[in-house]
């Protein structure tokens, strides 16, 4: 499938960067979008290091331009992360059944399942962070610095791709500093056996990630490219009404995409049980889960405004689930082995896992196929939710779907890829422009939509040659009529106009 369903905006941004690498030259440090932006060249820089985009573009150079290659690479990375979670769990507790259930459980998060087979890099960053944890566990068990350095390398890749993937690495830095400074050192309890070499590795990771953040910010600012959300809007910037409204949307809309809500409360209850039993716990696991939880809360508070609609911002917060479960299983094995090894407990957890699989299947299918009997007969979703998704897909079908296949027709009209167009209506930078593989402009940046002829004049002065309209009802708008004199083609619900030689 082409990029579709919820957050198609961000999917098309990722694909647009990749496509422009592929078609405009493999210049790693100068990524660009189809949307030409304020400077007219589309040059921009995402917050994430464009390693995945560049890799996919290289694969397209060899195998041809196929979006499924992008999906396949992300899926391979996602399943590598799940396999690493299985292996590290087995390393820690020596129980294959628990290891299998813990790794499968992560895959029952709707946002993990949806975005793993997608074009948004967050699940890849999380999965690479889990691979880093596997190598850290190998180091933890063997005390070989080789595994520690591999762990830092994978944390570095995860942090470059998405800095929030370091939510579980920051606790390691804090534990490292605490262990370095504490006076009464117990050699057999030390986590970090060579503070100098390991400190250098940690410092290099922080330095490289910081350097990329500074570079990308300066690059965006120098090109006046505000396509990506890079500025934090923390909770303390909002009034009580806005805070309540955002929390309401986070709880009722976004959390169901994170996990089944009763299961979230179940995990929080297990977390509290571990905190209460801190005297019986291994101190490393205690501080790890406490700091990961604190980091997740601080992250949500820092990027508070984005938790009204952006469910994929919760992907890296998923690390809280396996770290809590693993800490609990280690605790049970060390203190209550009979309960840990109980077949009844494993069966009960398997039933919870089975329910979460069904829940995830419903939440995933409704994003793509809301009219199937599977969705119509479920009791998980309200009728209002099903109606919303039906409207969402029908609206896309009637307005944007035709643009997925329009490119050959545009070329038959003599419109080249580099001929700048105005594509309306489209509040995103790149959905319609990417689907058409066309350079140009959209409604992005115009509050409420492009409804000002002066803006069109500015686009024309910037070299725009064509106007593409995918909403037929807009053809009756008075402000547009001066630009509808030279119709040169139509494709399903889309009409195309030449903007040159207008009075």
Structure description:
The protein is mostly helical. It has 20 helices and 5 strands. Strands 2-1-3-5-4 form a 5-stranded mixed sheet, with no helix packed on it. β1, α19 and β2 form a beta-alpha-beta unit. α4 packs antiparallel against α13. The longest helix is centred in the middle third of the chain and has 28 residues. The radius of gyration is 25 Å and the shape is globular. The two termini are 42 Å apart. The model has no long low-confidence stretch (mean pLDDT 91).
Structural class, by secondary structure, is: mainly alpha
CA-CA gap between termini: 42 Å
Overall form = globular
In the predicted model, the low-confidence regions spanning at least 5 consecutive residues are none
Strand portion, in percent? under 5%
- Helical content stands at 55-70%
Number of strands: 5
Q: Enumerate how many helices there are, as a single number.
A: 20
H and E order: HHHHHHHHHHHHHHHHHHEHEHEEE
Q: Order the strands across the largest sheet as they lie in space.
A: 2-1-3-5-4
How would a textbook summarize the main sheet? 5 strands, mixed
Computed Rg: 25 Å
- In round numbers, the mean pLDDT is 91
